[in-house]
Amino acid sequence: MNLDNDQYRIIVESSPNMIWRSGKDTLCNYFNTTWLNFTGRPLEQEMGVRWTEGVHPEDYETCIKIYLDAFEKEESFEMEYRLKRKDGVWRWINDRGVPYYINNHEFSGYIGSCIDVTDKVEGQNMRELAQKDGLTRINNRQYFEQLANVEFLKAKRFRTNFSIAMIDVDSFKAINDTYGHHAGDLVLKEIAKTINESIREFDIFGRFGGDEFILLMSNTNYAEADLLIKRMKTIVDHIKISYNDSVIHASASFGLYQMYDEDTLEKVIIEADKKLYEIKKSR
After folding, report:
1. Positive/negative CA dihedral, 99, 69, 16, 127
2. For the GGDEF domain, which residue ranges apply (predicted)?
3. Crossing angle for the helix pair 172-179 and 181-198, to the nearest 10 degrees
4. Cβ count near 17 (within 10 Å)
5. What is the pTM (predicted TM-score) of this model?
6. pLDDT in tens, 181-225
7. Do the Cβ atoms of 269 and 214 come closer than 8 Å?
8. 195: burial class by Cβ within 10 Å (0-12, 13-18, 19+)?
């Protein structure tokens, strides 16, 4: 069955999604009732680029860049940004735009559809807060141990190799005493970032506490893990951080241990920590 323009308009106006349209000039020329009810503004106040007045200042540049970049290429896009609701509350919006064409495939602009995804985004943020270390953005100790326990039990059950490395930032107290705690934070973040970019997809990496990190390598024996650690240490030991008028040279020590017959993850970590202590003591 073919639908006429009036029928299309009824469908669009009654849609629970917030729908917009723009012309070839990138300017918006239509918003449906759902959009207008959300923002609480009349159509004339949303037309052109005025709809962006409701976009959160922190999201504005990214939002516009994604839109204009897609527009230039005539490609579909999807983005999330905060839009002010009529009661003044910022809500996360998922916005999907697609180019539309008329006549002989003549590009005529974009049509977009938006939904409120605040609950989903805030849920993801809460999960991240519960799982990630606030400074380095890698796994925190609690979440690391949760993931590691699963791998430990699998290794015990299937009798597979399982290695853990405890990692300690060298001379961290001296860095804090010399340059201050902000510099120390930069060192921790840079080392965490460097290691996180060097590990394999299935490795599990986290901050253990203070200036200590921990790395789990499942299905990896000591010799294999040792090669990985040596490569990683070479990269870490070349880290240089410019701070004010100084250059901070970072390095780290690695204590490696392969699970033998330990009956808990904690015991494996203790053994790896002993190896780290021996390395630090020998210097």
Report:
1. positive
2. 160-283
3. 140
4. 15
5. 0.66
6. 999 999 999 999 999 999 999 999 999 999 999 999 999 999 999
7. yes
8. buried
CB within 8 Å of 100: residues ≥ 6 apart: 21, 108, 109, 110, 111
Which residues, listed in sequence order, are joined to residue 34 by a DSSP beta bridge? none
Contact 102, 110 (CB under 8 A): no
Q: Which residue in this structure is represented by tokens 């024996």?
A: 221
> In the Cβ-directed half-sphere of 26, how many Cα atoms lie within 13 Å?
14
Is residue 228 within 8 Å of residue 220, measured between CB atoms?
Answer: yes
93 within 8 A of 116, measured Cβ to Cβ: yes
Cα four-point dihedral sign 77, 124, 212, 220: negative
Q: Which two tokens stand for residue 47?
A: 């037309």
Residues assigned a catalytic role: 211
